[in-house]
Amino acid sequence: MSPPQLSPVLQHKLEPSPTLRINEMVNHMWAQGNEVYHLGFGESRFPVHPIIQRALADNAHQKSYLAGQGLEALRVQVARFYTAHLGMNIKANQIMVGPGSKALIYALQMALDAALILPTPSWVSYGPQAELLGRPVIQMRATPADQYAFTLAALDEAVAHSPKPQKILIINSPNNPTGQMLRPALLRELAAYCREKQILVLSDEIYALTPHGHAPHASLATYYPEGTVILGGLSKHMSLGGWRLGVAVLPDTEDGALLMRAARVVAGEIWSTASAPVQYAAITAYSENAELSSYVQECAAIHAIRTQHLWSWLVELGIPCAQPDGAFYMFPNFDPWRKPLAALGIQTSDELASYLLAEHRIATLPGTAFGAPAHDLSLRLASSYVDMETDAAADAILTAYRTNSNGDALMSQHHPKMAQAIGELTRFVEGLK
Ligand SMILES: Cc1ncc(COP(=O)(O)O)c(C=O)c1O
Fold first, then answer.
1. Distance between CA atoms of 220 and 190, rounded to whole angstroms?
2. CATH number at residue 128
3. Ligand 1 center to 321 CA (angstroms)
4. Is residue 232 lining ligand 1, measured as CB closer than 6 Å?
5. Domain identity same for 89 and 38
6. DSSP string, 9-31
7. What's the domain count of the chain?
8. pLDDT of 233-282, one tens digit each?
9. pLDDT tens per residue across span 296-332
10. N or C end: fewer C-beta atoms under 10 angstroms in the chain?
């Protein structure tokens, strides 16, 4: 048989992504018995709460296809959840349920004939999804010197370069890769700008329930309800990434209803429905339950301790890095050491990530994976994996926190690998000075 003729959009995408390449290298090094500090892997590792496990077990018999928009009872519960969290009236017909928020973002991008405007840096999949759909992507300008601040000036510049009249903007707060939140004052200005320019915003709020405590999560939807689609799900605050349950909250307008119809068509032709037992269990996950909310807060508090400690160690080493406000990421920059790094043959973030892995056994992701220019020497670090590699290790961290919730004690007594990783990073940075 002759080789398959691939779609042109896929021909240049067949090289493994930096994420996959780093993971493959890490797995290879582990298989050879080497220690690797996996600061490249962002996944909340806490145990599935027993209430949620029970809800899934109780619904193992659910076997039928469900409505493409999602199970009605779940949509009602999700609408209640967002009504309580946003302080605005959200209706069940505004909710769409899908197999992960990633699939919902793809469906929405497919539904819209628009150019995609992306902040720099931004999560790894938004841009490639648009490329798969043949949509233009315009990356907003941002620099490490300004800690990649999101500005309306950069947005306006990107809008002016849009090759299509319709534009969508994806924002993500708390952010992967920077951990930062968009503050209410900026969201208010952003709402006014997008309203004037008629820009639809996909607001990825998947990390909304993992704040670090010094800034509350705010949603653009409260300032711009008619033009904001919120994305959320169970992957992060419930540590349920593998369950594949995401939700979208569409505007309560005629345009929102039209977009819902289009997204339902995409769902109907691609995935039909998110897994039925998981949707039934998700009713419990979205319900008002004191035990579950305190568990979610506990997990967020541990993410905060681990992430803020890692960040403060970077700052002590003199590495420029914006302080994370939520989630389990940060985006440090090594531009101050451009010269000594060049002497090591490192001129791009890809080369920096490869060097750190090969020479210091520290796995990270290069800034290029997040749309940063190749010569910005930025990396994404995730705090979620180290010292929680196995279920037993993750359990042990949770137990230790319950015994003593002091952050310094948790880090000094229960994070041996994190300490080693920092030691290794210190050796690397001291060698550059
Ligand atoms: C910013 C961001 N959005 C969306 C997702 C995808 O989440 P889901 O599991 O709901 O598809 C992730 C997962 O890594 C993420 O980091």
1. 8
2. 3.40.640.10
3. 22
4. no
5. no
6. HHHTT-SPPHHHHHHHHHHHHHH
7. 2
8. 999 999 999 999 999 999 999 999 999 999 999 999 999 999 999 999 99
9. 999 999 999 999 999 999 999 999 999 999 999 999 9
10. N
